Give the backbone structure.
Amino acid sequence: MPDYTFADAPAPDIVVLAPQAGGPGLTAWLKQLHAKHKTIMSVGQGARTLARAGLLQGKDATLHHFDYGHFANDFPDINVVRQVRYVQADPTTFTAAGMTSGIDLALHLVAKRFGQEVAQQTADYMEYTGTAWKTNKTKAYPLPVRHMNLSGKLAPDAVIVLHMAFRGASLSGKPTTDIPAWNVTAVPTSVKFGAGQWKFKLQINGQPATFTGQVQRTTGGIKGALVYDGKSYPLTLRPR
C-alpha cells in the first residue's frame, strides 16, 4: 500500500515510470515535476504514460521494439527512435526500450550524475555485465508476423470477418473486411485499438460504416455495434 497520494507525496528527485496504467492525478503530477526540471525516466510501455501527459510531444522517444509501429500510430507527433537502448527527450526526460534497457538507462544516469567510475562500480556490485549503458547500442530484433481473423454475425444471414496481420504488437499492412452475404470482399479497413476499445472504419457498397466495441474480459470477444446506412447492427467479434 502506498504511503502517499499524488497530492501529498514528497517531491522526488527522480521518477521511474514502469509499464503500468497509473492512477488519477498521475498526469498532472508528472507535468508539475517536469516544470520543476525533475528527472523522469520511463521503461518500455511507460513511455505511453509520458506521451499521454504531453511530455514527449515533438521529441524523440523509444520503447519496447514490439510496439514501435503501434506507438508511432497512436502518437504521430513523437519521433520513435529504433534500435537504441534509451533516448534523451529533453534535459530531464528519458525513455528506455525493454526491461534490461531500463538498467542501462539507470546506469547512464548514475554516470551523468556521479561519473563513469561510480556507474561501473554500481554495475559490478549488481553483477551486471551489460555494457550498452556506455554505448547505447543494441541489435535489431526480428519481429514475428502473426495473423488474426475476427468474425461475428451482423444478421442471421450475414457474417463479417476482419482480417489483420501484426508485426510484433503493431498492425502490418492494411486490414481488410469480408461480408460475403453483402458482396463485400477484401475491403480496406482502418483499425484502431487501445485501452480495451476497438474501432474500425470501411466502405460498404460505397457507404461509410463504423464499428466501435469494447473488449469483454470474461469472454475475450469485442462487443459493440456497426453503424451503416443509418442503421446500428449489434456485433460481437471473436477470434476465428
In short: The first helix runs from residue 26 to 35.
